[in-house]
Automatic annotation (TrEMBL):
It catalyses: L-glutamate + NH4(+) + ATP = L-glutamine + ADP + phosphate + H(+). PANTHER family: GLUTAMINE SYNTHETASE, GLUTAMINE SYNTHETASE CYTOSOLIC ISOZYME 1-1. Transmembrane segments: none annotated. It is found in: Cytoplasm. Residues 104-377 form the GS catalytic domain. It holds the Pfam family Gln-synt_C. Residues 17-97 form the GS beta-grasp domain. It comes from Sphagnum jensenii. This is Glutamine synthetase. InterPro entries: Gln_synt_N, Gln_synt_N_sf, Gln_synth/guanido_kin_cat_dom, Gln_synth_cat_dom, Gln_synth_gly_rich_site, Gln_synth_N_conserv_site, Glutamine_Synthetase. It comes from the Eukaryota. Keywords: ATP-binding, Cytoplasm, Ligase, Nucleotide-binding. Its main location: cytoplasm.
Amino acid sequence: MSTLTELLELSLDEKTIIAEYIWIGGSGTDLRSKARTLNGPVTDVKKLPKWNYDGSSTNQAAGADSEVILYPQAIYKDPFRRGHNILVICDAYTPQGDAIPSNKRAAAAEIFAKKEVAEEQTWFGLEQEYTLLQKDIKWPVGWPKGGYPGPQGPYYCGTGADKAWGRDIVNAHYKACLYAGIQISGINAEVMPGQWEFQVGPAVGISAADQLWAARYILERITEIAGVVLSLEPKPVDGDWNGAGCHANYSSKSMRAEGGYGLIKEAIEKLGLRHKEHMAHYGTGNEKRMTGQHETADMNIFSWGVGNRGVSIRVGGDTEKEGKGYLEDRRPSSNMDPYVVCGMLAYTTLVWKPGLWNGHIHFHKGEWKVGSNGTMQ
């Protein structure tokens, strides 16, 4: 009698692959997926067929008209099935071809397709913080049930059985992302015990957001196997504990060139002028995290500085010294949508002009849109 493990490790004919289609559910943070058999191997996302699902079961459509269409957008190697099998990041549309309200990728793609953005070859490095929770009690791994560990201090980048909890999960995720072809650049234990971080990038344009969603999916699957719960809550534990963010490191081609520091400061000025608009779309529950304490700025006050981790926008000392480089937007929460954050950073710094409209971004009934005309701001 074969074991489950033996059956899972069965090899397939090289011409047959399993494609796991992945999309974002109705909450904007939940990930859904289902698999299909295809002729393979497939390496070009344009050769993948569209698919459909029941949107009424994901809070993305009414029961009387529930069909939602998946458009494949990015391919990664499947670290779970391996071989020629693939993970496919998709976004969602109505049968008529309109992006559904929870599809934030479509609007971001419009921004990155704009001439002034495409020419600047935007780079993003996304620092995803997250917390691992005990499955039955939804309390950080390693913490005593109903109790607390010692105060923060020894846990950040710490080692040892009394400091680093969940490392096997973190390392498994790291290697799985590398196998998949995601540009994961590092990992570390965070300030609060049971909390970790991985970094994606630098990656170009919208691909950074695709890769972050793929990395989140892989992490969800690994925690599923490990029997722990992944939390992207910005403030998973109240009190004197650090929250969880997803800092966005960002640069344009001109910022990375000689004399780019002046353009970085111009970009920061624009970000300050649109601070409220950004904060409105940088994740839910961020007000619990951005209190001006625990390495955060006050979410209601825009600030920036060199080497300062208590500000909205941080500029590294090397960037100031070299006169070129990148900025770090420290405002996004851990549950932010990278399509929205990356799209807004590119739009505000490269397209938007104070007092003029050459296009606009707005939410209407939960839908993020990009338009070509609008009123004065």
